[in-house]
From TrEMBL:
The keyword Transferase applies. This is Aminotransferase class III-fold pyridoxal phosphate-dependent enzyme. GO terms for biological process: biotin biosynthetic process. Pfam families: Aminotran_3 (PF00202). Keywords: Aminotransferase, Pyridoxal phosphate, Transferase. The keyword Transferase applies. CDD domains: OAT_like. One of its GO terms (molecular function) is adenosylmethionine-8-amino-7-oxononanoate transaminase activity. It comes from the Bacteria. Its cofactor is pyridoxal 5'-phosphate. Belongs to the class-III pyridoxal-phosphate-dependent aminotransferase family. InterPro entries: Aminotrans_3 (IPR005814), Aminotrans_3_PPA_site (IPR049704), PyrdxlP-dep_Trfase (IPR015424), PyrdxlP-dep_Trfase_major (IPR015421), PyrdxlP-dep_Trfase_small (IPR015422).
Length: 442
């Protein structure tokens, strides 16, 4: 057990401007987490809260893992920081090799970042650098997808497709376009796993090529869109997108910040869906969220084109002070050791059927208009209140928390993604609490 002496609440809540939060509401109705262990958070007053979201899709091995904590402590005592600009330290190289062992064959080069947002922007820049290195400097356009989420940097927001994340900030990057999203309640509601309808939506890329010619550098999509409410790809959709990218000389980027590291029952979503992209972005589960870290894995020929196609000196003018940070590298190595020794993807795959049945038990519940799932992820979509989109789901979120279960709310969708160590009793409690909360709200 983690030993600590928490205060009941901070002296004041004013100084911290909270991210993606209704600050005015929260600071008059605070919900404070003070400790975490295994499958649970604990509030400052000692209430147990079952974690139905792995923090924010990230604590795949559960909370308070001694192996990760000790690795961080040990490294902090040896060397707290080392720059990776023109220098290096052993753990960064070891962590990169561990990641490369998990990525698809031929994807053995890893660039470290500090978050999923930085990973998205890094992937976009690498795509542009690669196209220029191979003599395709006219390829400056980037294509995202409606309802896509690629973090909150200006690059990720530009290719992202969430209106609320964009409307306050004016113009985004130039030369960006979008594919349609694949969500179709009329044809695919209450699908278990991959929906049958929607593969043809990938053909919209042909229209963008007709419009923009050979100026498209890359397409970036989440294999499964998580932050917009668990949008599972239709059967054949990702393969169709892969084929079109190959046909037109376009790089395909998978944002696997959520689907990476076991969430869908395999190391990465690329393996689960049977489609290998050119670039994979990652974060979250890479360190079990113990230390912020992200990464970008690229096919070897992309690395070779950029590095060997450049003049002597720096080949890619990009990086972060904390790229490959020693403490993050130590956390990543320890996390990936757990990933392997406990077979977290296998545990997720073994529990998927039970999880799926529990999620779909909500079908027929008043106000539930869809349930969808893949791996240990589920989205429960609620009918919105007239004139108040998102209000009903937010009330369900708060009710569940007060009843001891943490969920995730995005629009009118409750998203569930527990740690991959979840057992049947945890799943029963999560979906039972959601069912009661949905019935209780107006």
């Amino acid at each position: 057990m983690n030993q600590f002496s928490p205060v009941s609440r901070p002296n004041n809540l004013d100084a911290f401007w909270m991210p993606f939060t209704d600050n005015r509401y929260y600071k008059s109705h605070p919900r404070l987490l003070a400790r975490a262990e295994g499958m649970n958070y604990y509030t400052a007053d000692g209430m147990e809260v079952l974690d139905g979201t792995a923090g924010l899709w990230c604590c795949n091995a559960g909370h308070g893992r001694r192996e990760i904590t000790e690795a961080i402590q040990k490294q902090a005592a040896v060397m707290d920081f080392a720059p990776t600009f023109q220098l290096g330290h052993p753990l960064a190289f070891e962590a990169a090799a561990r990641v490369a062992d998990m990525t698809p064959d031929g994807m053995d080069r890893v660039f470290f970042t500090n978050s999923g947002s930085e990973s998205a922007d890094t992937a976009l820049k690498i795509a542009l650098a690669y196209q220029k290195a191979r003599g395709q400097a006219q390829r400056v356009r980037l294509v995202g997808r409606e309802r896509g989420y690629h973090g909150v940097g200006f690059g990720g927001m530009s290719v992202g497709g969430i209106g609320g994340n964009r409307k306050q900030f004016g113009a985004m990057l130039p030369y960006v376009d979008h594919l349609p999203h694949t969500h179709n309640l009329a044809k695919n509601a209450f699908t278990r796993g991959l929906p049958q309808h929607g593969a043809e939506l990938a053909d919209a890329l042909e229209g963008l090529v007709t419009l923009h010619g050979d100026t498209i550098a890359a397409v970036i999509v989440e294999p499964m869109a998580g932050s917009t409410g668990v949008l599972v790809p239709p059967v054949g959709y990702l393969q169709r997108l892969r084929d079109l990218c190959d046909k037109h000389g376009i790089l395909l980027i998978f944002d696997e910040v959520i689907t990476g590291f076991g969430r869908v029952g395999t190391d990465f979503g690329a393996e689960r869906f049977g489609v290998t992209p050119d670039i994979i972005t990652m974060a979250k589960g890479l360190t079990n969220a113990a230390v912020p870290m992200g990464g970008v894995a690229v096919k070897n020929d992309i690395y070779e084109a950029v590095v060997n196609g450049s003049a002597d000196g720096i080949e890619l003018f990009h990086g972060y002070t904390y790229s490959g940070h020693p403490l993050a590298s130590a956390a990543a190595i320890a996390t990936l050791d757990l990933h392997r020794s406990e077979d977290l993807p296998g545990r997720a795959k073994a529990m998927e059927g039970y999880f799926e049945d529990a999620a779909h038990s909500l079908k027929g519940t008043d106000k539930v208009i869809d349930v969808r799932n893949i791996g240990l992820v589920a989205g429960i979509e609620l009918a919105p209140r007239a004139g108040k989109p998102g209000a009903r789901a937010m009330e369900v979120f708060r009710t569940c928390f007060d009843n001891g279960v943490l969920t995730r709310v995005t629009g009118d969708i409750i998203a569930i993604s527990p740690p991959l160590i979840a057992e049947k009793q945890h799943i029963d409690r999560i979906f039972g609490t959601i069912a009661e909360a949905v019935k209780a709200v107006d």
